[in-house]
Design a protein that fits this description.
This protein is 57% helix and 18% strand. A 4-stranded antiparallel sheet has the order 2-1-4-3.
Amino acid sequence: MSISAFIVDPEDEFERSFMLPVATESFYKQYWEPAAEELGLEWTALFQGGTDVEQEDVPKILEEIAQLKEWVSSKMSGEAQEHMLRRLNLLEIGLPSAFRRDGTVVYIG
């Protein structure tokens, strides 16, 4: 199983093809979960079980991504660090782009 972000009820080709990979279950449990717990992150902790995200939630999620990037840079190294930073960057850039229309909902889980 893996965790990804996609648009619920897509209305056009962009929305149908929108998908951001976040993490595999095992990678999430090994790295994302401890980071979210240590940093007290609310949104990131919901990703494994799945959660709906609306446009007004994005600033808070981006804030958490920034905290995660700092954590990853100081606590991780090597390939795992590079992989997680790539996924965080993808989420940081891609998530805001999903909200092209009012009422868009992105599911992360």
